[in-house]
């Protein structure tokens, strides 16, 4: 649900404005209403600094250093500069290393030799010429006509020299030009560069934990400064600049803390109820189960203030859809074990909540695995004692249940839309949506008979919700308008409803496809693994390794698909039919840092 907000306007003497903001920032309850977006020079500098610190923290975090924290004699900014200089030096060294390695690759086929020997031979009247050519271009007659010596052959290229005492033999080969340094000199230089780079890596690794802690503290300080200066700009001057007014939002549940603060500091204020047109910030408040799904709803957008928070409505469906896509008892147990282990190790509350969500997904996989009779892709229906206890027997039933779940969620979304419309606009504006619900409910039950469902007991009564729904759609789609226009508009609306509804239901076939594909992949893994188990001596070992790899891969693919596709069904099909509207702005109290 969305917490109720109240708007407070504070009336302050201009000389007390700054001190009031200092105390308000410490309180950390009020979401400041912004009246201007201009940034001061110091705000711009703070933003640039925060970006620098954030980028450096990201780099140092990737090092995954477990070095002990150390006492750092440098100020925070000086340490940032030192680390950035070290990173720049490392990049320059890497560039030099790449160049030297290329030079070494060029010279390696020629081997180690003394360049002075070439000069001595030249002084004696002999010239050594270095050539390369493709192996199939090298002509044997060159060795007959000239003193040719093949030095090496690498990658289909022949490296050879020609020793002459006069002139330049006409050979169809490339002339090789040596670098100023010998191969040995280049190898020594490479080792020197790598040692310098290693020293920098050791420094960065050793300082990373200390630097990350210091930079996070500095980021928090800079953020508070930026936020405070921004709040300083939001106050409106009144009464010839002697009075400043600033407004903000606060959840009603936290209002008493603000009132105590205002009374203690003798601050004049006005309070009023939040109005939807003022776009109050959104703070979600749900029970423990729905709260775990709030990060998923925020991935899309927050609702407007006068909308419904759909998180508690889609949460059970989302968990069920994940279990449907990964319907396997063994997979569910593995997911739960991994989530519990990670939850015990992690310290961040947000990550712990994500692990709790994974536990729910794992439990859903176990339940759906039992319903469909699958454990590590082995068919439990083949066990006589369990066969009668499995609810879903074949793929046809999986297909039917996927469509049934889709129909239920879509109808649920339409019901929510009807309630919301009635709440916001009155009963007569919600009659058309109620009619849509009744019509589609009747058609869904009627259509279920095509899938083999016995509806003989309710079939005589289906005409009533269908006819009533049709009448409500045709007569009440635009309350207050001419009845002829209503009927004409209702016919077009009816076409959109029916085509859209059946199109949305077909989207839920993806649940069937993912469920079956995961089961087939697991079955293939088991089949191949059983064949490997028959290999003499090493068979059992290969079987275990292959099964671990195969089922780990299947769990990974299933987990990804089981999250992404329910996400799509939630944000497209369900949100659309529930007439979701957003985005709302998130409640971010001045001074409070998570």
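Q: What amino acid sequence fits the structure above?
A:
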């Amino acid at each position: 649900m969305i917490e109720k907000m109240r708007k407070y306007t504070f009336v302050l003497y201009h000389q007390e404005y700054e001190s009031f903001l200092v105390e308000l920032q410490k309180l950390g309850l009020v979401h400041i209403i912004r009246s201007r977006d201009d940034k001061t020079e110091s705000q711009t500098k703070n933003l640039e600094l925060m970006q620098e610190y954030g980028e450096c923290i990201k780099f140092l975090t990737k090092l995954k250093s477990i070095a002990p924290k150390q006492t750092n004699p440098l100020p925070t900014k000086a340490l940032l500069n030192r680390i950035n200089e070290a990173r720049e030096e490392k990049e320059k060294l890497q560039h030099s290393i790449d160049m030297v390695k290329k030079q070494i690759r060029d010279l390696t086929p020629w081997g180690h030799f003394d360049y002075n020997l070439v000069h001595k031979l030249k002084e004696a009247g002999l010239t050594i010429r270095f050539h390369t050519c493709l192996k199939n271009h090298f002509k044997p007659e060159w060795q007959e006509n000239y003193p040719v010596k093949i030095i090496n052959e690498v990658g289909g290229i022949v490296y050879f020299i020609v020793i002459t005492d006069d002139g330049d033999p006409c050979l169809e080969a490339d002339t090789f030009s040596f670098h100023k340094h010998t191969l040995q000199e280049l190898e020594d230089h490479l080792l020197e560069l790598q040692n310098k780079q290693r020293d920098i890596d050791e420094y960065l690794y050793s300082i990373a934990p200390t630097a990350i802690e210091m930079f996070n503290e500095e980021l928090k300080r800079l953020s508070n400064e930026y936020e405070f200066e921004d709040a300083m700009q939001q106050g409106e001057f009144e009464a010839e600049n002697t009075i400043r007014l600033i407004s903000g939002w606060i959840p009603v549940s936290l209002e008493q803390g603000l009132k105590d603060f205002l009374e203690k500091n003798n601050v004049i204020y006005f309070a009023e109820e939040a109005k939807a047109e003022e776009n109050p910030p959104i703070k979600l408040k749900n029970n423990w189960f729905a709260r775990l799904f709030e990060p998923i709803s925020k991935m899309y957008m927050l609702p407007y203030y006068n909308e419904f928070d759909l998180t508690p409505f889609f949460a059970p469906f989302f968990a069920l859809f994940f279990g449907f896509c990964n319907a396997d008892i063994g997979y569910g147990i593995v997911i739960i074990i991994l989530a519990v282990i990670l939850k015990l190790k992690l310290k961040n509350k947000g990550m712990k909540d994500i692990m709790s969500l994974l536990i729910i997904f794992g439990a859903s996989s176990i339940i759906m695995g039992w319903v469909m009779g699958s454990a590590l892709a082995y068919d439990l229906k083949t066990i006589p004692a369990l066969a009668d206890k499995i609810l879903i027997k074949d793929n046809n039933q999986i297909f039917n249940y996927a469509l049934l779940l889709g129909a239920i969620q879509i109808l649920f979304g339409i019901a929510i839309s009807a309630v919301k419309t009635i709440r916001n606009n009155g009963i007569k504006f919600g009659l058309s949506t109620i009619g849509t619900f009744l019509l589609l409910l009747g058609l869904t039950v009627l259509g279920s008979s095509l899938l083999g469902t016995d509806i003989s007991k309710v079939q005589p009564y289906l005409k009533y919700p269908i006819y009533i729904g049709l009448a409500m759609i045709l007569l009440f789609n635009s309350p207050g308008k001419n009845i002829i226009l209503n009927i004409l508009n209702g016919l077009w609306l009816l076409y959109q409803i029916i085509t859209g509804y059946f199109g949305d239901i077909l989207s839920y076939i993806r649940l069937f496809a993912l469920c079956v594909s995961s089961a087939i992949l697991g079955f293939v893994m088991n089949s191949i693994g059983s064949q490997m188990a028959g290999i003499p001596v090493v068979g059992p070992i290969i079987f275990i390794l292959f099964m671990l790899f195969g089922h780990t891969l299947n769990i990974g693919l299933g987990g990804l698909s089981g999250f992404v596709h329910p996400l799509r069904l939630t944000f497209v099909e369900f949100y659309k039919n529930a007439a979701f509207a957003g985005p709302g702005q998130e409640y971010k109290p001045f001074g409070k840092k998570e």
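Q: And what stands out in the fold?
A: The chain has a mean pLDDT of 89.
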